[in-house]
Amino acid sequence: MNKVMSLLSELSLSDEPKKHLIELKTTLITLTAPRIKELPSNLNLNVLFDSFNSSDSEQVELTVDILTHFTPFVSPVLLRGLAHPHEKVRTLVLKEIQLCSDTDMGVMSVISDAPLLLGIVSSLGDSSLGVVKVASDTLLTVCRQAEGIRAVFSSESVSIMQTVMAKSDSCRFNVYDMLVQVCLLGDLAMSTVSNSGLLDRLTAEVTTGDVLTQLNALELLTTLVVSRDGMALLHRAGVVAKLQYLLSLAENDPMAALLMPGLIKFFGNMGHTQPRRMVEEYGSVMVMILRLAAGTLDLGDPTFQLVAIETVVHIGSSPEGILALAKFKTEMDEVLDIIGTKMRTAPTDQRVRILEALAQLFTVEQEYQSEEVVGTLELWWPGVAGVNLEKLMAVARQPFADLHCAALKVLKALAYMAWGQKLIRSEPGLVEYILNRATENESTGKVMKWEIVKTLVLSSTASSIFDEFQMEQLNKYYRQGVFYVETQVEVAMEGEN
């Protein structure tokens, strides 16, 4: 015990803190928890907290490991800090706890101290969003271990969460947000949160309360869709069926139409994650989103159409998604037609979003290509109304960096596929434009040009499509890198001033 006291004293005076920290850690490992508790209650640990003020990551990790042994001594101080009237103090305390929770021993120290753990949970109801964020992150760190999940969702802890939720709408959603983040950690986390009953309250919010509450609940539930376990849970709870019903009301019910952005995003993420299921079980939802994107369904808000177009593209941003969209030929033809029209006539900010959506839809890297997928995209390209490479290059040459780069992204998408490479080769002057570094003044444009060249050079089909000279120039451009500048040699002539 005296050794611990001596090392702490030496640490405060040392010019080599790491050496003393290593020795202190070794000493503490040999002591049992009851022996550590025999240390004086007025133990001064300020020197350990000072050790955090270092750029040496090894020293910081050593300090964290050591502090976990001293939890019984720092816990009362931490609890007072969590209740401090100044939010900076509360934030600092939570950050220190989170730092200690990064180790297995640290998690065990936190969850074995019930008052401290419940104090962290109570911080989800703090008036400061900054404090809430750190509290949520700390609980998430603790929940990365099975023992941590069980402790955070013990009956006593869940009771504290319910108390926090009763304080206000914002506090309730602070807890919901933390629940959803924990769910994404894995099967055990998902089942533990589900068994707490708190997730049922979140799913109920979607069909009750005001529109803002419903939209906030939808936003959180949309996060769960990316997980198969989350999707299964939402199906079991009947949430997906309820949302499908709300979507069906939107055409005739103005109140339901207000939920449209959230509903589109939810089903868009569902279609992105499980495109085949979306086609087989929710075909009517797909048709509605496609009609909204094409403009054949008008819900009175023009912003819905662009959101729907981006949602269609999100669904089609995988080979499985492309084939799923191909099942809706009539509707998809209408969407492609409107994409082409908007690319030419919409305001600049919308044209940028449309071009980026078009690039995303047609981007299939070589390792994910199949004859069916590439063939589908080749059939779709002429359907993009009035768009050809000449018009695309006219857009690329406009003096607007975002519009210019968005057009180059479409070129890069075409460069992945043999039929797209043939279009690039056949367009007069296009290969020369790609190889001309002088057209790019901004770094973003230089990067995009080089990305197009890289895609062509690394393609297995380009050498059979472009001639030998073109391939030689493309390879040279690729080897020279993104920011290569041609050296200008000047020769001074006799007699010049």
From TrEMBL:
InterPro entries: ARM-like, ARM-type_fold, PSMD5
Native source organism of the sequence: Penaeus vannamei (Whiteleg shrimp)
Family classification: Belongs to the proteasome subunit S5B/HSM3 family.
Classification via SUPFAM superfamilies: ARM repeat
Domain of life: Eukaryota
Stated name of the protein: 26S proteasome non-ATPase regulatory subunit 5
A GO cellular component entry from the record: cytosol
One Pfam family cited in the UniProt record for this chain: Proteasom_PSMB
A GO BP annotation: proteasome assembly
